[in-house]
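REQUEST ID: PR-0412
SUBMITTED BY: lab tech R.K.
PRIORITY: routine
TASK: structure prediction, single protein chain
INPUT:
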Amino acid sequence: MSSTPPAPIKPASHRLPSSPENGLEPLAETLVNLPASESEVAPGAASNGQAADSNTISVTRRKAQAKAGVTQLIDRTSDETELPLPAVRRQWFKATRLLGGVVILGLLAGVGVLVASWFGVFDNPYKDLEFQRVDRGDIILTAVQWGELESARNTEIVCKVRSSGRGNNIATTIKWVIPDGSQVRKGDLICLLDDSALKEQYKDQEIVVAEKLALLIQAEKDREIVLSQNKSDLENAENNVRLAEIDLKKFLEGDIEQKRKDVLGRISLAESDLSQWRDRFSWTMRMVKLGYMSVSQAQSDESRLRSAQIALEKVLEEKRVLEEYEFRRGLIDYQNKLAQAKAALAVVRTQAEAKAAQAEATYKSRLSIYEQELRKLEELAEDIRNCTIYAPNDGLVIYYVPETSRWGIGSQQVLIQENEPVREGQRLMRIPDLKRMQVRVKVHESLVSRIRGDVVRRTGFSDTLFAALAATPAHWTKITTFMLGPRMKEEYSEFEEEVVRPGLRAQIRIPDYPRPIQGHVKSIAAVASSTDFLSSDVKVYQTVVSVDEEVPNLRPGMSAEVTIYLEGERENVLRLPIHAVLEVNGKKFCYVKNEQTGEIEKRAIRTGVSNNRWVEILPESELREGELVVLNPRTLAERRGDLVEQEVRRPPRAASGGKPGRGQGASSPRAGGRSGTDRGALAPREGPPADGEPGSATEFVGKPGFGSKPRKPGFGPRLATSPELIKPDSAAPTP
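STATUS: complete
OUTPUT:
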């Protein structure tokens, strides 16, 4: 029978007494009521069979133990709380000495800071540095030059009258000329040249042309006769060849076969007769033996037998002669006749060709002479017409004065006035087309390789047109082609070439014009020229920039600023201001501020293209987007000694005291580790170069309408030879 176990004893929530006034009995009662362990409290039968006296003894013993423990605890607490007076004083002196030491150390530290501040020990070495974050953007390469406006299509008025030759290049003289600067309309008379001598020559040349024409007609008739005779001779020779071929075929397939069959027939007949007489002679001999016939009859039959045998042998001999001799002889004979006929045909054909060639040469010679004389006649007629010059289009007449005449140099001086001689091909005046303008600039030789003009392809329009006209058999068409050829070529000159690839984009600024004008590079001269006689060592190339817009009120000779956008533009690349990059012995670097530690770190970089403001940073550089870069690093680099390696001893000058040779001063490095040969690769500087300073994209003093007077090429400091102020590394892409 099972019994219900007693409920467990719940622990009483209590705290130890903090003072002996609370008494020991309540504390002992509390400790007695604490729960017992599992070994002391037995469930079920253990609790039922336990005696009451044992429980009472256990509770009494625990109360006594609790009183003794509480008494000891109260005594120990009283001993720790009530300290004697000398121990408290010792603790107070210790705290006072510690506080005094801290105060003294603070005063000493303050004095040290003041002294260090007085001597600048704690000055910020980076307080004068300027920073900028590395970002991405475009790098545009440009070249800025000054030039003058001119018409893209100047109608040149040239003296087209031919000179007499023989060392004399004077064609004629001026009888009358329109005044310089006159406004004309198309078809107006602008110049008259003397044509009296040309008219006399024209009359004499007409007589010569008539004589040459008669000789040409005679040669043409002779050629027709020779061609007809050659045709007849060739037909006869060809007929002889055909007859010889027929005879040879007749011999092989007719005559010789007929003779062979005749001989074979007679051979068969002779063999038949021989066989018949043999039988007859045999019968006769039997009859003679029997006595029916006489011996004479037998002899007669024997004679006939021999005759038949001889006849057979004769026919067989005829067959042998036919096959071995007569056939071969006839074959060779007819083949020889055929060969002779063919040889005769070849001779006749060669003779015909020779006669025809001779007749043709005679005809062509006289035709050439006639055309030459006729051309002279037409040239004289054209010269007479060219003595009267009309305006080809509306415009302003400007006398042409070459540069040599302006400066008073040159072997011949050109004067456009009455009674003055003119030479063949001499430019007299020009009429510009103001609707199509261009700018002619002089580009320094260091920039020529970076500038590209129009890539054109010749269409051959005029050549095809002239060839088609000249191929016509009519003489009047050829004469018209020779007469109008130059004029047609000038008229259709714009169809002679087509642009395959346009040149570099450009912007043109005209003084007092509100906006820039769009244009492109049209052409670059293949031969360099000096800027002027005062600076012959400066080589420039004449470059033509075409104006792509129709702008009113433009005049030839106006000044223009041309900005050419070079190839190699970089879009959305990592870039730095150009003055933030230093270079020592070919190695480029910059300074970056570590935002976590505040220190300035040196970073190696590799650069690509650059202009006057920005330089491209290649991906393999130790620089990332968003980092703070020092903009004025030169002072910091000198303070750290990062530019020490660049101090290389310069080579001594020549003993004569003159300038160093091309191989001396050009090889000595400059400040910042850059070589003196790197024209335009300037030493690092603080702050970007301002417009107009050396190294900037606008290294000019000014221009009318934009500021002060422009600096002419050859005077003052030279132009920056390259827009790249920092040479790109070998791994960098080259535009």
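NOTES: The first strand starts at residue 131 and ends at 133.
REVIEWED BY: pending
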